[in-house]
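Friendly challenge for the regulars: who can give me the C-alpha cells for this chain first? No prize, just bragging rights.
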Amino acid sequence: PAMLRVALLSVHSAPEMVAAKREMATLKEISMRLRSVSSIQKITKSMKMVSAAKFARAEQSLRRGKALGPASIALSEKANIKTEPTDSTKHLLIGVSSDRGLCGSIHSGIGKAIKRTLASQPAGVETKVVAYGDKLRGIVGRVAPEKLLVSVSDVGKRPPTFAESSFVAENLLKAGYDFTYGQIFFNQFKSAVEYKMLTRPVLSPKAIEGRDELNAYDDVSPETLKDYLEFNLACSMFYASMEGAASEQSARMTAMDNASNNAGDMIDSLRLTFNRTRQSVITRELIEIISGASALE
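First reply, four minutes later:
Bragging rights claimed.
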C-alpha cells in the first residue's frame, strides 16, 4: 500500500513537476534578461559620461567662435543685399549634420526640413543638396538621390575645424553648380537640454554680381569678391558645424541619460518578477514535500 501511495503521488504530481520546470526555465530567462539590461545600462552610463566631456569641449569651442555667426552675414546686412528664392532658378541647400547617431532627432529634424523645402519648390526650379554627414546623406538619398550634389563623410568623430570647412567650401564651389540662392540648415545650440533648427542664407557670386549696393565699397574686384564669398561660405559652415556639434553632444547626453533611467526601471521590474517567480517555485516545492510526507503517514 505504501508503494501504491508513492506511485499515485508520482502520477498526480507530474503536471506540477512540468510546471516547476517551466518556472525554472522562466527564472533562467529572467536572469539572462536582467544581466543583458544591466550591461546595456553600464554602456549608456559610460556613453553619457563621454558625451558630457565632449559637450564641455564643444561648448567652449562654440563660445570662442560665436562671433563667426554674425560676421558671416555682415555684408548682406550692411549692404542690404537680399536674395529671394522666387528670384532665382537654381537653389542650393546645405545640411550640416554628422555621421553618428544615438542623439535623438538631431539629424532627422534637418532631413525633414530639407524634404519640406524640396517638396515646396515650384516647377522650373533646379535644386541641389549638400549633405554634410552620412546621416543626412542617407535621409536625402532615400527621398531624392538625384538631388545630391556633394556628400561629406567622416564628420562628427572629431571636433570641427576651420580647415575642414574650408576644404568642403572649396570643393563645393569647384563642383560647377552656379546657384543663385542658397541656404544652410543646422541646429543652433540653446542650452544643455534645448536646440533649434535654423536656416542661414548663403551668398553666391551670381546673386551679388552687379549689385548697386556694392558701390558703397571701394575696389570690389571680381577676384576679391570671389575670395570673400569662398571665405564667407567656409565661415558659415564652420559656425554651423560648431553649433551642430554642441547640439549633438547635448542631445546624446540627454538621450543616454533617459536610456539609463529606462534601463534602471526595467531592472527594477525584472528583479521584482524574478523574486516573485523564485518565491513561487520555493513555495510549490515546499507544498510537494509536505504533501508527500503527509501521504506516507
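Confidence is low (pLDDT under 50) at residues 1-12. The radius of gyration is 31 Å. Your move, everyone else.
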